[in-house]
Design brief:
Elements lengths: L1 E2 L1 E4 L10 H12 L5 H14 L5 H8 L8 H12 L5 H12 L3 E9 H4 L8 E10 L2 E7 L6 H13 L3 E2 L5 E4 L5 H4 L4 E5 L6 E3 L6
């Protein structure tokens, strides 16, 4: 069955700023003794730049806060630090597409461990998955980091599972970044969200 879709990135698209950066700052204030973990994260990040460490390993070290907070604490983080950074007009854009009959996807590299607390008008949340241990999310990534072409893999898996096909001409994509060109290429109507103020404009790759 063909369906109209609307694909939304999250960081600097729906919400201003980088969510994991917000979480790291929040963690440092709540758990200052965890500062040594930031050194480990930087070390693995350097290894990734040198192509010695896979992205998923780097992401696991970055997501160490998930090992420190309970679900209730992560909910408080999301509500206090992430929700206030929403662009109101982008939330309205989501509502508009939903009301037009689009199947609304929120597709993000941010972790589902805290992103599932969102109350946005979406049908599907696709974020980076991490292992649940004793009822709490951990930093251990399951599968791939939900970024770049991996977003398309997740979307295509969902479409296949539900026997859906994208109505290309009547579907939409929103992002602040050229990293999302693979996802945006799945739809005809593409919009860039300005990192400066969240303003919408037609999506034109920056290298052109």
């Amino acid at each position: 069955m063909k369906i109209k879709c609307a694909f939304f990135d999250f960081d600097d698209t729906i919400a201003h700023g980088d969510t994991i950066h917000k979480l790291l700052i929040y963690t440092f204030k709540k758990h200052p003794l965890s500062s040594w973990r930031y050194i480990k994260t930087a070390f693995f990040g350097l290894g990734h730049l040198l192509k010695l460490v896979p992205m998923e390993k780097v992401k696991t070290t970055i997501l160490f806060p998930l090992d420190l907070f309970t679900q209730e604490e992560l909910k408080v983080f999301y509500e206090e630090k992430v929700v206030p950074s929403y662009y109101p007009h982008m939330v309205e854009e989501m509502k508009k597409r939903k009301e037009e009959g689009c199947h609304v996807f929120l597709v993000t590299a941010s972790s589902e461990a805290y992103m599932h607390f969102n109350k946005l008008p979406i049908d599907v949340l696709m974020g980076t998955k991490t292992k649940i241990i004793d009822g709490e999310y951990s930093s251990k990534i399951i599968g791939k980091n939900c970024k770049d072409a991996n977003k398309c893999d997740r979307i295509n898996e969902y479409l296949k599972e539900h026997d859906f096909e994208i109505d290309y001409d009547h579907s939409y994509g929103y992002s602040d970044s050229d990293h999302d060109i693979p996802m945006l290429s799945m739809v005809k109507n593409r919009y860039r969200v300005s990192k400066k103020d969240g303003a919408l404009s037609p999506f034109i790759p920056k290298e052109q």
